[in-house]
Amino acid sequence: MEFVLKRMDPVQRQPERGSLEQDGMSPMDPPDAYAPPNMEPVAVADMHPYLQQMVIEHQPFLLEVERFENTILAIQKCGYTKEADGQLKHFLNFIDEEFIAHNRREEATLFPLLKKRLLATAEHGGGKTPITPVDLMQDEHTKAVQLAAVILNFLGLAFRIPDEKVRLIVLDAALEQGRFLVELLRLHMFREDNLIFPLAHQLITATELEQM
What we know:
The protein has helices spanning 17-23, 49-78, 82-120, 133-158, 164-203, 206-210. By secondary structure, it is mostly helical. The protein has a single domain (47-120, 134-210), classed as Four Helix Bundle (Hemerythrin (Met), subunit A) (Up-down Bundle), CATH 1.20.120. The radius of gyration is 19 Å and the shape is elongated. The termini are far apart.
């Protein structure tokens, strides 16, 4: 079934991405979201092969995120088509099969030891329960999966609603959550590549990484 959004998407009322990039800002993130803390940069080529593989796996993920964003923009411009429906389902299936598997490997192998080292070196926030960068990454893993589930549920609901106006509102909400997911995933992979993996390079020995 094809229909065109007749209501302005709330996300579209934000400035265009190009102007955001020029200003170094995003409505979804703090102005310094893509500015990692002051630490010695680590070239991917200098990392252990385990960490290199994690970085490499992000490349197809970023391509999928870009395609997903382009699909959202196409729906907002031209309406919801059968092709767009297939592309959205492909991305949500990708999240379920590839992204979650990648996250589970990180959480089962790298994150526990890295968190232990971060706590030992006082690389954490204050408070009764110290929060490390690893905790933030795990929280973003959960948020990404939750957003994907919300989008899937909204899409399923939209096409069961007989009233066109209500259906468009629900679809509108799904697309808005999709934009949030795009920003979350991009920032998450940037943080892992530029903060988490360099920290692992510094705090975990080659022998320990070999065992992962």
